[in-house]
């Protein structure tokens, strides 16, 4: 199928300067415009992939420790958690349940003092709801025995306290009988039974596990305070939590894992949106190169435009010629940037690891970012959005120069030819 003459001329203008050796500066500007759009598109794809990977990896580590769904009794404790677990299991999405007790406190050992969130668990039940209960972690938590007052510390927390398996630590929590005049904390000595490592610094440095019976004794209660549920798909936790809130018999508070970390997820989404806007401006700046290239091309082709007009070409046809020329430059940049960005996003962890090895630095500090390796998750929906925005900006950048080409006066343009 033969292309319309506007497309043929626009394509010829795009490549004629490089092929014939004339108008080298216009050809250079064309290359700059293609490279600018390509780099902007590649940067957008890579950055959005990093944001997606960061959210995925940190979220997975959160879900490994946190409950998909937590159920609390409004009265304070679950006197019959087994019955509540049976009621919750009627929902087909619920796979397992485990009781727990949580209490914030301070851990002390030979002058070192660190805050920690202690969770009392039944090890045999916890393995059914916690993803991190595998390998060494599962073996350490399985060692917890009722009445032995043993504790399993996060690896970073144990390192900060300078303790190892078999050492003793002292737990200090606010006294249940404390008054304004006497606020001495309640203390209890625990033996370190092991450590766990989930790869999330916040949990590894500030969380510890004890047996449920020991936690209840420390808190002076005779039942767990909540129930942790595991569901088939963690992403469906908000929907399942709403269903349970209406289906459970009793006055229960139901909370899913996204609510517990709502601020973090909102911050990540906000950062992703802002990065998209900022990097889109880079693509927009690159599109101005297309404007400059077309303006110079129109100036250089004034005689050609005049001849086409005298042969009967209409102003819309003249406009289409330069729209095709500019849009092809943008499309070439978008195509090159998409290919480059996708390849980098797919291989980013290896690239980042190589950079760290060569430069001897660590790109991500786990104390700040919770993870130590650069993550990446390429979503084709993001790629499609980036390509769409880049093509639109490239098209818009062709409109004014193309319209200006239609204002050429044939007689004046050919006067000195």
UniProtKB/TrEMBL annotation:
<feature type="transmembrane region" description="Helical">
    <location>
        <begin position="378"/>
        <end position="400"/>
    </location>
</feature>
<dbReference type="InterPro" id="IPR025857">
    <property type="entry name" value="MacB_PCD"/>
</dbReference>
<feature type="transmembrane region" description="Helical">
    <location>
        <begin position="25"/>
        <end position="51"/>
    </location>
</feature>
<keyword id="KW-0449">Lipoprotein</keyword>
<feature type="domain" description="ABC3 transporter permease C-terminal">
    <location>
        <begin position="276"/>
        <end position="410"/>
    </location>
</feature>
<keyword id="KW-0813">Transport</keyword>
<dbReference type="Pfam" id="PF12704">
    <property type="entry name" value="MacB_PCD"/>
</dbReference>
<dbReference type="Pfam" id="PF02687">
    <property type="entry name" value="FtsX"/>
</dbReference>
<dbReference type="GO" id="GO:0098797">
    <property type="term" value="C:plasma membrane protein complex"/>
</dbReference>
<protein>
    <submittedName>
        <fullName>Lipoprotein-releasing system permease protein</fullName>
    </submittedName>
</protein>
<keyword id="KW-1003">Cell membrane</keyword>
<dbReference type="GO" id="GO:0044874">
    <property type="term" value="P:lipoprotein localization to outer membrane"/>
</dbReference>
<feature type="transmembrane region" description="Helical">
    <location>
        <begin position="319"/>
        <end position="346"/>
    </location>
</feature>
<dbReference type="InterPro" id="IPR051447">
    <property type="entry name" value="Lipoprotein-release_system"/>
</dbReference>
<dbReference type="GO" id="GO:0042953">
    <property type="term" value="P:lipoprotein transport"/>
</dbReference>
<feature type="domain" description="MacB-like periplasmic core">
    <location>
        <begin position="30"/>
        <end position="245"/>
    </location>
</feature>
<comment type="similarity">
    <text>Belongs to the ABC-4 integral membrane protein family. LolC/E subfamily.</text>
</comment>
<dbReference type="InterPro" id="IPR011925">
    <property type="entry name" value="LolCE_TM"/>
</dbReference>
<dbReference type="InterPro" id="IPR003838">
    <property type="entry name" value="ABC3_permease_C"/>
</dbReference>
<feature type="transmembrane region" description="Helical">
    <location>
        <begin position="274"/>
        <end position="298"/>
    </location>
</feature>
<keyword id="KW-1133">Transmembrane helix</keyword>
<keyword id="KW-0472">Membrane</keyword>
<keyword id="KW-0812">Transmembrane</keyword>
